[in-house]
Design goal:
Oligomer: heterodimer
Shape of chain B: globular
Largest sheet of chain B: 7 strands, mixed
Order of helices and strands of chain B: EEEEEEEEEEE
Number of strands of chain B: 11
Largest sheet of chain A: 6 strands, mixed
Distance between the termini of chain B: 31 Å
Radius of gyration of chain A: 14 Å
Number of helices of chain B: 0
Low-confidence stretches of chain B: none
Radius of gyration of chain B: 13 Å
Mean pLDDT of chain B: 94
Number of helices of chain A: 0
Low-confidence stretches of chain A: none
Mean pLDDT of chain A: 93
Number of strands of chain A: 12
Structural class of chain B: mainly beta
Shape of chain A: globular
Distance between the termini of chain A: 41 Å
Strand content of chain A: over 45%
Largest interface: A-B, 29 and 30 residues
Helix content of chain B: under 10%
């Protein structure tokens, strides 16, 4: 069965620090997709990024960057120069294909608190 | 705003009751997914519909059922409610049904069973 592990339950940093959220996944599939979602205090789940298993290029979007390494089955997320608005729970997820359908397997989430 | 709408935002009910949660997908999306987020189980996939047909089932209890209507909106029915059913229920949608698609989530319905 597929599994996603986010070992860091909670992280607290001071504003402007860089912070990395770890994500390790397990799958037997050769083709799969990885995702990050953000859940701010308001509760909704916001899509951040999707990465397929054939694309190991790192991605940068503003202060956000993602490092995908198949060799270690990791898909880590770094926030540079963190801001208070980055405070949220962040979820890493793995897309599992099942007979042509799809379900997301989520990690337990990392609660990130950015202190002013 | 993801474009996925869910009603109601909050629902408080008693044990043994039945409730219906409603979801409207983004315009043009054919797939609807339901997830449950609880403190002890985390975010768990319940069920997927594609263009009116059930496509995948996860850890959905027999007391729970869902359907997708011709206008593509979906409803999740929860019956014989127990205290442990208290959770945040999310609906998500995607354009197609395959695992390559990105799922966009609605704001959720917070269910409290007293």
């Amino acid at each position: 069965a597929q599994k996603v592990t986010q070992a860091q339950t909670e992280i607290s940093v001071v504003e402007k620090e860089d912070v990395t959220l770890d994500c390790v996944y397990e799958t037997r599939d050769t083709t799969y997709y990885l995702f990050w979602y953000k859940q701010p205090p308001s509760g909704e789940l916001v899509f951040l990024i999707r990465r397929n298993s054939f694309d190991e290029q790192n991605e940068i979007s503003g202060r956000y960057s993602w490092n995908f390494q198949k060799s270690t089955s990791s898909f880590n997320f770094t926030i540079t120069a963190s801001q208070v608005v980055d405070s949220a729970v962040y979820f890493c997820a793995l897309s599992e294909a099942e007979g042509g359908a799809q379900k997301l397997v989520f990690g337990q989430g990392t609660r990130l608190t950015i202190n002013p | 705003d993801s474009g996925v709408t869910q009603t109601p935002k909050h629902l408080i009910t008693a044990t043994g009751q039945r409730v219906t949660l409603r979801c409207s997908p983004r315009s043009g999306d054919l797939s609807v997914y339901w997830y449950q987020q609880s403190l002890d189980q985390g975010l768990q996939f319940l069920i997927q519909y594609y263009n009116g047909e059930e496509r995948a089932k996860g850890n959905i209890l027999e007391r729970f059922s869902a359907q997708q209507f011709p206008d593509l909106h979906s409803e999740l029915n929860l019956s014989s409610l127990e205290l442990g059913d208290s959770a945040l229920y999310f609906c998500a949608s995607s354009h197609r049904q395959g695992f390559t698609d990105t799922q966009y989530f609605g704001p959720g319905t917070r269910l409290t069973v007293l």
